[in-house]
Structure prediction request, 102 residues.
Amino acid sequence: MKTLIGFALAVVLAASSALADSVFVVKYASRADKKVFVVPYASRADCVIWRARYASRAKGPAKWFFADYASRADLKIFYVKYASRADLKVFFTPYESRAGCK
Prediction:
C-alpha cells in the first residue's frame, strides 16, 4: 500500500511540471523543458490552458503566466510545427473554469 501511494505521489509531482505556473517560450528546442503543439480543438489536447494576465492568478493546474525572462519561469517551452514532435498538446481557452488536463 505504501509503495502504491509513493508511486502515485511521484506521478503527480512529475505531471505538475507540465502544469507549471509561469512559462517562458525559448527560441531553440534544445533549451526547452517541454515541446508544445497547439491544437485547434480542446478535445484533441492533453491540457486545456488558461493564459493568466498576472503571475498571481496563475496558481493551479493548467493556468499559465508567460514570463518575460527565463529565470522567472517554472517551465521553458518550445512551440513545434508538427504534433508528432510534441511532448504536450495544448489548447488555449479564454475561460479560467475550463482549464485542466486529462
Remarks:
- The beta strands are 22-25, 34-38, 47-52, 63-66, 75-79, 88-93, 100-101.
- DSSP finds one helix and seven strands in the chain.
- The helical segments are 2-16.
- The mean pLDDT is 87.
